[in-house]
């Protein structure tokens, strides 16, 4: 957890003293704050999805865990969509294509996507081991051939996909690591 402090036009990020020990951080802030909230983080009230954006501002819309269930989602207005993982159930190519089609229907100027733990096919090492066995937990994934998922990320043509990489959007640097 960090917060920024201006220093000659730059932002200095200070690291929370508990960032290296999440269990200790949870215990400390939960006990000392009655809820998990570091003292330098201030809660804001949510705004309606259709609230107009003030001029000169950039509005990020951040979502995750849609798990191939994007039908009927009413998305807020914004400039940048940031989907931070679990956009599929298993990372099947058909799920990735459906997600990409959904992204293509959205009006955001920029769309940035990062895979999550449900995008199994995005992890080649994991998949190489999985296809060697008849893995009971993911039968539909274990039946895929390597060529079915060799470059599944390329199916994401309606966004910038980040995998241990970054992109600068409207002056904001975004780093993504699945």
TrEMBL record:
InterPro entries: Calcineurin-like_PHP (IPR004843), Metallo-depent_PP-like (IPR029052), UPF0046_metallophosphoest (IPR051693). Residues 59-140 form the Calcineurin-like phosphoesterase domain. Gene3D superfamilies: 3.60.21.10. Belongs to the UPF0046 family. This is Calcineurin-like phosphoesterase domain-containing protein. The lineage of its organism: Eukaryota, Metazoa, Chordata, Craniata, Vertebrata.
């Amino acid at each position: 957890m960090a917060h920024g402090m201006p220093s000659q036009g730059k932002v200095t990020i200070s690291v929370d003293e508990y960032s290296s020990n999440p269990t200790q951080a949870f215990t400390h802030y939960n006990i000392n704050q009655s809820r998990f909230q570091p003292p330098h983080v201030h809660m804001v009230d949510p705004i309606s999805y259709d609230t107009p954006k003030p001029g000169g501002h950039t509005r990020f819309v951040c979502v995750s865990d849609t798990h191939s269930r994007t039908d009927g989602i009413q998305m807020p207005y914004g400039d940048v969509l940031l989907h931070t993982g679990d956009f599929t159930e298993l990372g099947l190519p058909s799920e990735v294509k459906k997600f990409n089609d959904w992204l293509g229907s959205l009006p955001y100027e920029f769309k940035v996507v990062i895979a999550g733990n449900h995008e199994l096919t995005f992890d080649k090492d994991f998949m190489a081991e999985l296809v060697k066995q008849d893995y009971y937990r993911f039968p539909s994934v274990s039946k895929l051939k390597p060529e079915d998922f060799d470059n599944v990320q390329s199916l994401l043509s309606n966004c910038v996909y980040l995998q241990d990489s970054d992109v600068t959007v409207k002056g904001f640097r975004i780093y993504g690591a699945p």
